[in-house]
Amino acid sequence: MPHQPYAVMAVAVGALLVSLVVTTALAFRIRRLRAERDRAVRLAREELARDIHDLAGHWLWLASIKSELAYRHAAGDERLRGELAETLQAVRRAAHAVRHVSRGNRRLSLQGESTRAQALLTGFGIDCSVSLGRPGLPEDVSAVLGTVVREGVTNMLRHSAPGRCVIELTGRDGRLRLSVANDGTPSGERPGAGEAAGDGLGNLRHRVVGLGGTLRATAGDDGWFRLVAEVPEKFSE
């Protein structure tokens, strides 16, 4: 009998401990479920942003290129040129809005941009071959090289009349070499002139140099124009 109060107290303490354990476990479970829900929502938003960029962005890019080409060929018809200029401006604003929405959720990649470039050029009746011999590039390297492909193809369509394009990534002597080449060297471009001018290459060169690499654009004696980016292969490890 004298031990009965201690037994009751022990039972009460045990019940309290069990209650605390159960409550703590439930709290952790609720927290985990909330984290899983938030993660699922975040992934869904990222997936939507990627879809917007990949689907709408591609067609807006194509519309921008075609509108610009149509504008340049509408010489002599000022009314048509005015309407095309407004269309081009609207398309560019829409493309900027798409990039803004998807920013932070999607990065350019060499594989993705090469695939899109091939589809775009094929739509223009241009033969395009892609050979990427170095899979598994780090995201920052892939993003920069993807930008090289996009800018190279865009400039190609704006300033050249190519029948064939070759996009190739190779590795040699400890360096990765990406080449975007086409056989549509403008007639006003003197073969062998060396470095090609253009404000668009400035930002591109800055990004490549940031990886310890180099960027050059040349028109060769064979009539091919080449945009070549090289970065140390150590960045691909």
From TrEMBL:
Transmembrane segments: 6-28
Coiled-coil portions: none
Gene Ontology molecular function, alphabetical: kinase activity
Keyword Methyltransferase recorded: no
Keyword terms: Kinase, Membrane, Transferase, Transmembrane, Transmembrane helix, Two-component regulatory system
Domain (Signal transduction histidine kinase subgroup 3 dimerisation and phosphoacceptor) ranges: 45-106
Name of the protein: Sensor histidine kinase
